[in-house]
Design goal:
Layout lengths: L1 H27 L6 H4 L1 E4 L13 E4 L4 E5 L7 E9 L2 E6 L9 E9 L3 E6 L2 E7 L2
Antiparallel strand pairs: 1-2, 1-8, 2-3, 3-4, 4-5, 5-6, 6-7, 7-8
């Protein structure tokens, strides 16, 4: 009887171990993001309690270029390129002449027609589509 019980427990643990390994493999697999959904202009949502204050706007073009600046287009504007690999987004900003550019790496947590959520370490950025 003990032998039968030990065999049943061993079989159960083996099945649980295989299921856990498959779940980890699925979790590590990057979700494919549709580049066409990323293309467009994105702004940070309005902050409650602060009137008139607008955050920056990001723009992604079909040809792999990206821009960061004020939502109304006035003032300075950073230019760069972006690469999308699965759910990994890499932004390479062009520096001023003689100054190297900056590279930012994000994971896309959510991308819909209206919402974009980017995660970099512990920081999370939320964006809403404008165009």
């Amino acid at each position: 009887m003990r032998m039968l019980l030990c065999c049943a427990i061993g079989l159960g643990l083996a099945l649980v171990g295989t299921a856990t390994a498959q779940q980890k493999k699925d979790k590590d697999k990057a979700a494919t993001i549709d580049k066409d959904l990323l293309v467009g202009k994105w702004e940070t949502p309005a902050v409650r309690g602060i009137k008139g204050a607008k955050g920056p706007a990001r723009e992604f073009t079909q040809d792999g270029k990206c821009y960061l600046g004020s939502p109304d287009g006035k003032g300075p504007r950073l230019e760069g390129t972006y690469e999308l690999d699965g759910n990994n987004l890499t932004l390479k900003w062009t520096g001023a002449p003689g100054v190297p550019g900056e590279v930012q790496k994000f994971k896309i947590k959510k991308l819909t027609k209206t919402d974009l959520i980017l995660v970099a370490g512990r920081a999370t950025e939320s964006w809403k589509r404008t165009k």
